[in-house]
Amino acid sequence: MITISQLTKTYGKKVQALRGVDLEIGAGMFGLVGPNGAGKTTLMRIMAGLLRPTSGKVSVLGNDVTTGRGKKAVKEVLGYLPQELGLYPDLSALEFLEYVALLKGVTDKVERKKQLDETLELVGLTQDARRRLRTYSGGMKRRVGIAQALLGQPQLLIVDEPTSGLDPEERVRLRNLLAEMAVRCTVILSTHIVEDISQSCSDLAVINAGKVLFRGDPSTLIEQVRGKVWTLTTNGEKLSQELAVVSTWHIKDGTQYRVIGTPHPSAAAIPVEPSLEDGYLWLMQKKQDA
Amino acid sequence: MKTVRQVLAIARTEFRFAFRRGAPVAVITIIGLLISAGILVGPLTELSAWATNAIMTPEKIEKLASFGLTAAEWSIYFRDGFSDIFVASTMLAWVGIFLALLFLPIAASTSIPADRQFGVSELLRTTPITGFDYLAGKLLGMLITVILIGAIMLALFFAVTELVLFSSLHYGLSASASLFLIKLSFLDGLPMLIWGTAVGVLVGVFFRTRRSAIFPGMLAGGASLVGWAYAFRAPAQGFPGVLDLAYFYLLQNYHSSAMVLQSRIGFHYSIDLAGMPSVGIGQLAMMYLALIALIALIFAFTRLWLQWKENF
To answer: The pTM is what?
Structure first.
């Protein structure tokens, strides 16, 4: 469905955001995870036809996004939620969504009304649809962003950091909504929050410094770190620098750490079941060490 | 058809913004009305004095006879003669209104930067519209706004002058004077507004924030007007408010028999263009063609700029 080969993007002469990315993305929900500045947004923006790559090829549903015709064809079937979502404060949610629907080519009045009603219902904004957007909270604005992405029945949904700024309840709700959408279309979810990926994606890529570090399903990434995740309890002693600390709890008998690596044999280390976050951190640690 | 609907959607939204972010529109409308009212005060006072000529006295009848006119003839000519003088006297007020209106298109330079500032630009670029559709929609929306406000202000101008003339002089606007000002608004005012709006909106393409676009927008708007006044200047000077070819062309065609009467009886106001170089419809057509070509050129340039800078 989406084929990316040898993709590079350089800003100016020095900043290399993408360095020869190769990816194949199929149907369903695909997670793109990496630290801030890894190149995720650049990759998403190229796929959406917003940015021209420096070199390489991107084919979305058989359309080359680097050509004018291909770009237009992709935009006909695209739903996109940018990382920094902007809305017109002078419009109501309904007016804004109607505007986007028209721009997406939903020109039939009956069909447009149907889609608007459905998406507003889906994101839980039916009651507030006629309020000006300047009166909306951050979470509500994010939901408007999701709603506009869903208009026009997209075949490809690209969402860039959709859960940032949302409270836990809204995050869960959004993840579920995206998972529902993934039944109907391809969803590409970019985030630096591993939990979002682990809860919803069956396929993922880890990207760092413009390169793909891992490509596969979450369980494979988890398997790579099996046997390397421990809990350690200390009484104030310093941990070996080779260990990556995932989390820290202060308990009655000292401090308990969840770590990745190989602890010193004398340490009271207890092996634990790895999570996707452990796998991700281990990958990052490996990259840093290399 | 779909593209047309998309362009119209952009235009409609732009039109909405103009009124919801209403402060600039209100301020400019008030400025325009104040300018034109100020300009109108003087001529209308003079017109009031002039209108007393309508009251016939034996001395006046005798004086008219010295010009070879009867009181009956004078009363027939009076209305037309008065409307000529009305037109001559209110020219500057009309120009004032349209110059004030030209601040609107200059304010239009913030239209595209506003999308970037609010962060909506990126979202719009992921829809199937092209940069061409986007620019066309923005331009159309702003033009509709400007034309609507222009029409309201022109209606107010007519209402005020009619009211003043009727109530203080017991003398309403004549059809010929009204027709002249309406023609003038269509053939001169409207193209001027379209030109200013196009320059204003399209200059905005080069700026990222509304604040950064205002001053360059004003400069470009001002320069475009000076350029207009120079490139399409009237072949003869000395008529109040006659800025360009279109105005001169209309004035020339307005040259009524009443003016002959006025010059014979030695009135102060005269818009007699006899002996002046004439402007034909061909020259006017060339002026419009040149404007269309210039707007198309600027449009094409900004479109290419969007494509190059924003892949839009």
So the answer is: 0.84
